[in-house]
Amino acid sequence: VLDVHASDSTGRKFDIEIQRANKGAGSKRARYNSSLLDAHILKPGESTDNMPDSYVIFITENDYMKKGLPLYHVERVVQETQKLFGDGSHIIYVNGSYKNDDDPIGKLMHDFRCTRSVDMFYNELKDTVKHFKETEGGRGQVCKAMEERIKRERSEERIEVLLGTVKSLMENM
Question: How does pLDDT run across 65-85, given as a tens digit for each residue?
Answer without folding.
Answer: 999 999 999 999 999 999 999
